[in-house]
Amino acid sequence: MDESHIGALTISVYPNPAKTDLFYKLNLNAVHKYFLPVHNGTVLEEGEQRGTEARLDLSPYPPGIYNLTIKICKNTKSKSFLIE
């Protein structure tokens, strides 16, 4: 992937607030890494996906505010969401 186009990365998450599943959509079709970090720096979940859409199972996590972080090449973007 041409890194010059990565700055245009956008992330959409839904539903927000979420209960058991979170879906996210990217505007770029690329292999990417995702992370669910918490405020103390611990990563609850991480993985690698291909494509523009994915689903995350939130059932193991308590209610609260979380950030979904997406990394493509050297570019990282985050989006906040709420688990009820």
Secondary-structure topology with pairs:
Elements: E1 11-14, E2 21-37, E3 43-57, E4 64-72, E5 75-83
Task: Describe the 3D structure.
By secondary structure, the chain is an all-beta fold. The protein has a single domain (3-83), classed as Sandwich (Immunoglobulin-like), CATH 2.60.40.1930. Helices cover 0% and strands 64% of the residues. The protein contains no helices and five strands. Strands 1, 2, 3, 4 and 5 form a five-stranded antiparallel beta sheet that branches. β4 and β5 (75-83) form a beta hairpin.
Determine the mean pLDDT: 88
CATH class: Mainly Beta
Number of strands: 5
Query: What is the fourth-level CATH superfamily?
Result: Macroglobulin (MG2) domain
Q: Which structural class fits the helix and strand makeup? A: mainly beta
Straight-line distance between termini: 36 Å
Portion in helices: under 10%
The run of helices and strands is EEEEE
Biggest sheet descriptor: 5 strands, antiparallel
Write out key terms for the chains shown.
mainly beta, 84 residues, single chain, disordered N terminus, Immunoglobulin-like
